Every structure is written in C-alpha cells, then in structure tokens.
C-alpha cells in the first residue's frame, strides 16, 4: 500500500508536468491549508479571518492556474482533496474531477 508521503511525491511529479516545480510545491501547500480550513469549517465553522484566509488561498491558486491556462477549483468537502486544476472549457462545478487533483497531505 502506498504511503501518504509516496502519494504526495507522485502527485508532485504529476503537477510538475503541467507547472513549474516551484508552483507545484506551492499548490500542494495551498491545498494543505485549504484542507485544514475545510476540516475546521465542517466541525466548527469559520471565523471571518479564516474565511478571508481561504479567499486569499483560492486567489493565490487561481493566479498560479492562470499562468498555465487552467482554472483552480476549491472542493470544500474535507473527505476529498481540496484543490484541482481544471481546463477552462470544463464545467468546474460538475467536471472538476477530470482535472488534476492537488494532494493536501
């Protein structure tokens, strides 16, 4: 069975096929932070400060995605991965899973 570390490293290599290595690592950090906020939102709700943090992280991910002609999609269910890079022609609300998932672990 693959460990979380191995899954993260494999995912990093997949992201780096689409982005620079630096952006791939940054997207994983953003995904991790969004996932933490999603877990907190599910259990307790978010404070105004946490909501603004999530918005900033989403914008940061979108800025990176735009460089590669992609759309960043934040899937807020904490049971799954939080961040996806999706082709702009896809409907991100229903077809985000056809995009590139960013490992939050």
Keywords:
3 strands; mainly alpha; 105 residues
List the helices and strands and how they pair.
Layout: H1 4-16, H2 21-43, H3 48-67, E1 71-74, E2 83-86, H4 92-95, E3 100-102
Antiparallel strand pairs: 1-2, 2-3
Helix pairs in contact: 1-2, 2-3
Percentage of residues in strands: 5-15%
- Give the overall shape, derived from the CA principal axes: globular
Mean pLDDT value: 94
Count of folded domains = 1
The structural class is mainly alpha
Order of helices and strands: HHHEEHE
The side-by-side strand order for the widest beta sheet comes to 1-2-3
The low-confidence parts are none
Helix amount, in percent? Answer: 55-70%
Number of helices: 4
Largest sheet: 3 strands, antiparallel
Which value, in Å, is the CA radius of gyration? 13 Å
Quantity of strands, as a count: 3
Distance between the termini: 16 Å
TL;DR?
The chain has 105 residues and is mainly α. It has 4 helices and 3 strands. The chain has a 3-stranded antiparallel β-sheet with strand order 1-2-3.
What do you see in this structure?
This protein has one domain. Helices cover 57% and strands 10% of the residues. It is built from 4 helices and 3 strands; from the N terminus they run H-H-H-E-E-H-E. It has helices at 4-16, 21-43, 48-67, 92-95; strands at 71-74, 83-86, 100-102. Strands 1-2-3 form a 3-stranded antiparallel beta sheet. A hairpin with an 8-residue loop joins strand 1 and strand 2. The longest helix has 23 residues, at 21-43.
